[in-house]
Specification:
Helix content is about 25%, strand content about 25%. It is built from 9 helices and 18 strands. The strands form 6 sheets. A 5-stranded antiparallel sheet has the order 6-7-14-10-11. The two termini are about 35 Å apart. It binds flavin-adenine dinucleotide. Flavin-adenine dinucleotide (FAD) binds next to strand 3, helix 3, strand 8 and strand 14.
């Protein structure tokens, strides 16, 4: 465990922004985080902040008061088709472990950055697979009762990029159990991945091949981030969630689509996610509202290929990123009457 004072948090986030943590604790395993949480009476969001790899967080330039805990590290254990994993484990190490052990259920989330806790907290998803599909239970530390609790999956509600843990911030995720399978649980139906499979001559129905296919598909989509890789781009992935739209709004959006396929895509996307809700691509919404790929505001840029990724091209402040995000949200609301929701969590005080 490392204990530091007045440390800049910028280097601990994928956006590369954020002020100082008054006290920074890097918890390298389950015991480190548990003993830290038990050591005093904390109030989350006031004198305690818990992060993983900061790949879905925008931390204020004013920094974070009190103690910031980064949960980074831990162990993975297998018991038949169940895997018990510490919340600080890098998510992709868990996926790699499951694939090496011939267990299906996580492979389509290959190379999503962050730790296991962040993944559960935000119900990460990719290529038709989400964390909640195979989650069995979560061990949390309850800051209010000062005890550890095991929450079964049914005790938590999960939806698109959300979990009820977000409304219960006094629960700190310590460890989780996943129920995986010796046979495929999901079909790989995303065209972008199937194209890669064909090009690489890999079988989308083979577990090891799937990991290779998804890695390459994500590489092409600019969706890979490694904290130790200095060439990684400074983004937090998609900044906004795909919004819910009415049929009329979907038809309206289709008019702005470059390929003329938005409506079809909306319906296809909705089918793949198995829901009846109509979700439009947030990227199309931004384009329809008049924003462009590569558009810049000082050091903040909409990624030249992936408009939904707000990028710090060097020297941006957290407030600059927040200002651009707010401008996008208000413009989309004004022009299209669509409410955009941030996927990225804002921590600390902004203007
Ligand atoms: C290049 C790139 C690509 C991405 N692609 C995807 C994708 O395909 N699909 C997808 O769903 N997401 C994607 N993301 C978003 C990101 O990878 C996920 O949200 C990830 O799970 C964040 O994990 P983290 O450890 O970095 O979380 P952090 O940013 O450190 O934390 C996120 C939130 O979780 C809370 N939290 C963290 N740890 C705990 C804990 N122990 N207990 C309670 N709360 C906690 C934090 O307080 C914060 O609110 C991408 C991000 C990047 C940068």
């Amino acid at each position: 465990m490392q204990i530091l004072t007045n440390q800049s948090l910028a280097k601990y986030t994928s956006l590369g922004v954020g002020g100082n943590a008054e006290k920074l604790i890097i918890a390298e395993n389950y015991n480190d985080i548990l003993s830290t949480l038990e050591s005093q009476d904390f109030v989350i969001g006031e004198d305690l902040w818990v992060l993983g790899f900061g790949s879905n967080s925008l931390i204020s330039d004013k920094g974070l008061p009190g103690t910031t805990v980064l949960y980074r590290g831990g162990k993975i254990e297998r018991n038949g088709s169940k895997i018990v994993v510490d919340g600080g484990v890098w998510w992709d190490d868990l996926v790699k472990y499951s694939v090496q052990n011939e267990l299906w259920g996580l492979e389509l989330t290959t190379e999503i950055p962050g730790n296991v806790s962040g993944a559960i907290h935000g119900n990460i998803a990719a290529y038709g697979q989400q964390v909640s599909d195979t989650l069995n239970s979560v061990e949390v530390y309850d800051l209010q009762q000062k005890i550890t609790l095991t929450l079964k999956k049914d005790d938590i509600s999960f939806s698109y990029r959300a979990s009820s843990l977000q409304q219960n911030p006094h629960y700190i995720i310590l460890r989780a159990t996943f129920d995986l399978s010796s046979s495929p649980l999901h079909e790989l139906r995303y065209n972008s991945a199937l194209v890669v499979a064909e090009e690489l001559a890999k079988d989308p129905n083979n577990l090891q091949d799937r990991r290779v296919i998804i890695t390459e598909t994500r590489r092409r989509a600019g969706s890979i981030f490694h904290p130790d890789d200095p060439t990684s781009e400074h983004t937090a992935g998609s900044f906004f969630k795909n919004p819910l739209v009415t049929k009329d709004q979907a038809i309206n959006l289709a008019k702005y689509d470059e390929t003329g396929k938005t409506l079809e895509r909306i319906q296809e996307q909705s089918k793949i996610h198995g829901g009846d809700a109509q979700r439009a691509s947030a990227a199309h919404v931004l384009l329809a509202a008049g924003f462009n790929r590569g558009q810049t505001w000082g050091a903040v840029r909409l990624h030249p290929s992936h408009v939904l990724k707000l990028e710090n091209t060097g020297g941006a402040k957290a407030q600059d990123i927040k200002n651009v995000a707010d401008l996008i949200t208000s413009t989309v609301k004004e022009k299209l009457e669509i409410k955009l929701e941030s996927e990225v969590k804002q921590l600390g005080q902004f203007d």
